[in-house]
Amino acid sequence: MATVPAVESFRHSVRDMDQDPDCFGDGSGTQLDYGLGFLEQEFGSELMSLEAVSELLEKMKTETALVEEQVPNLNFIYYTVFLKDVLLMLLNILIFQHLQGTRQLMDDLGQTFNHVDSMEKSMKYLKCLHYIGELSASVQQFLMTNGVWEAIKAVESMAALDSGLNQSGCSHLVEFLRKTLCFWHNIIKEQLSSDFENALTQLHWPIVSTTSQSATPPAGQEVSSHVEELVTQLLALQTSDDLISQRASASGQGQPSPPLQAPPLCLPIQIMLQPLKKRFRYHFCGNRQTNSLSKPEWYLTQVLIWMRNSSPFLMEKIQPALDQAGVAISVELCRGLMSLVQEKVASDASRMLYDDVLFCHLVEEVLQFEKELRSNYSYPAVLPGLFHILLEDAVLQKWLSMEKKMAVEKMDAMLSAEGAWTSQYKDISDMDELNAPECAETFMTLLQVITERYQALPSPAAQLKFLELQKELVDDFRIRLTQVMKEESRFPLGARYCAILNAVNYISTILRDWGDNVFFLQLQQAVVSLGEQEVLGGLGIMEMGRLASLEGSLFDGLLSLLDRLKGEMLGRLLDFLMRDIVEKARPYCQERWLSVPSQQDQSTMSLSSSACPMMLCVRDRLSGLHQSLSCPLFQLAWQGLADRLDKFLYRDVILSNHFSDGGAAQLQFDMSRNLFPLFGHHCRRPENFFKHVKEACIILCLSVGSAVLLKSDSPPESTLNELGVYCLSPCDVLILLNLRASLPEI
């Protein structure tokens, strides 16, 4: 019996699905042949029809259910179930074949879509090409009919299209568009520029001097209106001009322009700058005598003059047309002129790196120019001036080295000058309480001038380098003062020694003031934020924390060294004073206090003759120190002297002798009526600085009854306080009481 084609197709499909044998269940080949024969007999050529399969499946479900109820024949049920599985497999094969046919259809559709997409791109390409041609033709037509505004709008449309095609891969189309844009843009720009230059000539631009400004006749309404119209048209052409300039800059550099670069000048200013640029280059970039490296002030001053003289003209004639665009004409002109100055200064600076005199002069002139530009011409701080040239590595290092070199030379000169150790205000009373010698004032003025030079720099990192230089100079000056001090230390009361002490105190006072200055506080925060280890000098976490919290200052290290030097010098001075006073006080120490008779009337008492040399010495030394030392230092000196003298008299005069009542009274008279008043010129209660001597005199001069009572009982502190004794301990009081000869033994 011949096999029906549908059945044969089914057999092939089964073979194709051999990789999934589970789809047949666990039936044998005989069962499969039986099932296929049954299907061929029942359906024939309609076997591969979905309707036939569905009909058979429903029929089998019905008959199976009926047979199961009537005849429980297991073999029949088995073959029925098997036939059901075959039908399900057949359904899966039909789905598989359908998907295969669909995949081919999808591939065909994909090719069709790609072809359509390619045709669509080609149509867009041709439309874009046609649009460029239309714009080009319209620009040509408008220019022929003097329709400048319409031509500018067409060029703007080209520029917008160029921006839109910026990321396009159609390189030939983009190149054609850009060439077309440049062609028509340049034609319009040249025409407008020529008309604008002619109009400016009628207005006698440029205004190069005050004379030419005053001689400028008033322009007619027609010329002024024409100028405003040309300015407006040039501004409308600005978008395409910026785009073309940016393309040219990018192609020249091989990469896009940096995003922070200043925007290009507006076209009217570019045109107005042309005659000024010619003049600048003629006078300062050629072989003229005005192009002198030693005279940078010539071209810097000339540029400022042009800015000043041009301002009224710009505000009157040009600014009204720029108001709608939000452009400040004066700032734009200054920006354009600044580009000339920047180029010139950069060129000159590189040529002056090996000439100290010329370089220093250039820096001074640039700093002065920047100051005047920002203050008098309202040049915005966000726009670059000339500082960035000074901050270039080579120039900045040269500047720092020159500051150090000149400062060291000036230090040598100021320390060796004739009046280095005298105050310039010495003959003016109450003029300078710091009494600083001239060398110290000159040195701090030098540091202040350095600060003023670098204070306006826009870079905190560069400012910190100058600060480090200043600290280095202060330490160098301290070392020099120390060397001179050692030479003068043999006589610390000498004028030069005291002047050195005044200098140290003056410098430390100024540095403390600087530590509270806003500028140095800002630098302090910059140090913390930038982590400048060079300036920090390897500070630890605690010191860094103090700087961050503003508890410390940038000058703490220097102040510590200066304060130590000041303390050592004051100590050496007081030691010398005490040696002199002790020598003069030797007879007073050996006075026979025990044999001094009592005197009832103190008005008849006089200073002990043995105390006169000591008192005269103290008086003269205090007077000399008052004249030689600054007020703060003299305050420290006399208080230190009082403290040492108090301890000396208590130890070598009082504790080393025994006293009669007359001797105690004489001691108290010498101290309270003669020694204490010597210090009374400098404070209201000098006895408070002689606590040991004052309280010892109180104990020695107590009445006999009170003294005996104190001596018999260990005196409590409250009792001593009632007597005016606060410094001496009860043990000290007992020792003093034992020095009184008039008290009976207890």
Automatic annotation (TrEMBL):
Source domain of life: Eukaryota
Cellular component, GO annotation: Dsl1/NZR complex
InterPro entries named among the record's database cross-references: EXOC6PINT-1/Sec15/Tip20_C_dom2, RINT1_Tip20
Gene Ontology BP annotations: endoplasmic reticulum to Golgi vesicle-mediated transport; regulation of ER to Golgi vesicle-mediated transport; retrograde vesicle-mediated transport, Golgi to endoplasmic reticulum
Gene3D superfamilies: Dsl1p vesicle tethering complex, Tip20p subunit, domain D (1.20.58.670)
Family stated for the protein in its record: Belongs to the RINT1 family.
Protein name per Swiss-Prot or TrEMBL: RAD50-interacting protein 1
Source organism of this protein record: Nothobranchius furzeri (Turquoise killifish)
Lineage of producing organism: Eukaryota, Metazoa, Chordata, Craniata, Vertebrata
Gene giving rise to this polypeptide: RINT1
